[in-house]
Amino acid sequence: MSEHKVLLDVQGLKTYFPVRGGILHKAVGYVHAVEDVSFTIREQETFGLVGESGCGKSTTGRTILRLIEPTAGRILFDDTDLCALGQEEMRLQRRNMQLVFQDPYASLNPRMTVRKLLAEPLLTHFQLTPQELEEQVQWMAAAVGLAPEQLDRYPHQFSGGQRQRISIARALICKPRFVVADEPVSALDVSIQSQILNLLMSLQEELKLSYLFISHDLNVVRHISSRVGVMYLGRIVELGDTEAVYDRPLHPYTQALLSAIPKRDPSEVKERIRLEGDVPSPANPPKGCAFHDRCARCMGICKEQVPAVHEPEPGHTVACHLYD
Q1: Which of 14, 41, 181, 300 has the fewest CB atoms within 10 Å, counting from its CB?
Q2: Residue 115 burial (CB count, 10 A)
Q3: What confidence score (pLDDT) does residue 1 get?
Q4: Half-sphere exposure of 6 toward its Cβ, with a 13 Å CA cutoff?
Q5: Is beta strand 227-232 parallel, antiparallel or unpaired with respect to 210-214?
């Protein structure tokens, strides 16, 4: 991907949510949902973000789109600082940045036909004649595998996989440059997941899209992503090319996650790394490395200092004191 320029540059992103209490409902603490996250995504690249539920993946994606306001940090989209934009400027920018939701059942208005669902974003962002509008709707429906006669049906008349195709069409009909795909196949049957993944990949090539692909499914992320970031308790603990991270995991947390992936060959012996304890609360994150109380290789410094980011090999970074 080195021939493509950086489209999205996230620098030191933080997202905190206040915990309120008392009679006056004042903030008595903060949930550290995203803590000092930095990464880049190049044009036409798919960057995968993986980790356990509650680690901050979805919050990161929504903060980048400013559906959630960041607490600190910079979000540069094509050299434009999104955090510095006013509401109207951000509204105009949204045609270039879209979100594919996890649940196709909840993300579509049940009272609107597919035709109206696809036309709505175009009516919001562009001034088109009725003929131009219909042509765009027909083109997008065909691109995701929907037949013309299906455009006048309602969401409840479709299967889960078909509804996700409608959601993807709705997100892409304004021809954005960047898409946050938030667990887009986790609610689908396994047999349908590969169809949707292949659709996303073919549309990426056709429309020159960049993806932030969020998932807890490591096999899915490996299939679609060129680079991967591994999140734990709001921080990216490891980042690199997909093959490097999967074949040579550096962080103990990444190693534990990958050890849980079932092998295709049942006869292959594989040692499972089992993590002790529970994920700490982001409202009360531990001192030092957030992973230290579950790490079998924990050292004294891990309990006191947040680890710096190291680069043991080009393009492959890890936040761990083992590499100090």
Answers
A1: 300
A2: 18
A3: 46
A4: 11
A5: unpaired
